[in-house]
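Supplementary Methods. Inverse-folding protocol.

Structures were first reduced to a discrete structure-token string of length 322. This string, shown here, constituted the complete conditioning input.
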């Protein structure tokens, strides 16, 4: 699933909210006290850009580096290289946790190069009973007793072990449960986590179905759409003043619906025309006022003739007298 960079910023905001405090202990990550998201772009060997999965700042100032893997990492050189450069840039102690999905149940956790030893913590999601997790979350929703652990477990449920269930059934069940979350902040945070941890592992068909289901999520997708639409609308107004808004400007971009496009075009054209008319009338009135004042006419008369506020005429008169 391709998500615009600005939309990723929105998702990241919800991911941080979803993980704050000790929420990650629901996955067996003990002692992680998240307070903020840390920038994850790290220049590797000054040759190219590599992107870490997620790096969180913790309350004690250390960094928590989370990696999501769908295949077994046979050596830890890649993670070690990331962490060395991250430490070089940030100067912080780093704790690295690797979350393994897609049935992986074993992987190395230590890299010993003789003069130094590098260690990560591995969490194997396939060891968790996904059916039991979904049943527990559903029971909590039925009783209206939502807990922080429910948010994290539901977000990762599709990567757990589900005996006797198809992948499609699990995904649909997860989405249905997310849609049932009554608190909009919780719903947005859970949807953000689910989207950020699952999108890369979905097939094209699953991605399309997920997009359709996510369109029904109230806050998260609406916020993404509104940010994209607002940005496009502002650009459209500017273009509209000069070029009649160039086909309405690609309508709030990702908003993309026909109704949105039509409303955006009409609104942009009308705003562009109205602003142009107002600017033109104001400039004309100011020019007439200057000419009248230059001929010694009374401020009140100039205001009455041009329609300009008397305060504006007095200001202009004073400006011309200096």
């Amino acid at each position: 699933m391709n998500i615009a960079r600005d939309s990723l910023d929105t998702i990241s905001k919800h991911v941080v909210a979803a993980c704050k405090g000790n929420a990650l202990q629901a996955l067996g990550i003990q002692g992680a006290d998240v307070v903020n998201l840390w920038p994850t772009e790290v220049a590797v060997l000054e040759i190219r850009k590599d992107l870490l999965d997620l790096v969180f700042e913790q309350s004690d100032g250390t960094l928590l580096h989370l990696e999501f893997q769908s295949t077994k990492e046979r050596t830890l050189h890649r993670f070690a290289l990331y962490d060395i450069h991250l430490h070089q840039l940030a100067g912080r102690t780093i704790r690295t946790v690797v979350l393994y999905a897609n049935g992986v149940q074993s992987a190395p956790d230590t890299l010993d190069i003789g003069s130094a030893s590098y260690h990560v913590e591995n969490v194997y999601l396939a060891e968790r009973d996904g059916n039991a997790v979904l049943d527990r979350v559903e029971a909590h929703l039925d009783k209206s007793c939502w807990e922080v652990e429910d948010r994290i477990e539901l977000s990762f449920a599709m990567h757990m072990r589900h005996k006797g269930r198809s992948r499609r059934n699990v995904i649909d069940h997860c989405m249905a449960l997310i849609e049932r979350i009554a608190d909009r902040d919780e719903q947005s945070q859970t949807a953000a986590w689910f989207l950020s941890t699952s999108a890369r592992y979905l097939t094209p068909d699953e991605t399309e179905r997920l997009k359709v289901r996510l369109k029904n999520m109230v806050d998260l997708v609406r916020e993404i759409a509104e940010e994209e639409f607002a940005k496009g609308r502002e650009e459209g107004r500017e273009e509209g003043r000069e070029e009649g808004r160039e086909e309405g400007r690609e309508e709030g971009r990702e908003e993309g619906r026909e109704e949105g496009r039509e409303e955006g075009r009409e609104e942009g054209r009308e705003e562009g025309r109205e602003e142009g008319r107002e600017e033109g009338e104001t400039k004309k009135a100011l020019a007439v006022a200057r000419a009248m004042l230059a001929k010694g006419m009374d401020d009140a008369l100039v205001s009455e003739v041009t329609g300009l506020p008397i305060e504006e005429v007095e200001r202009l008169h004073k400006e011309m007298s200096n």
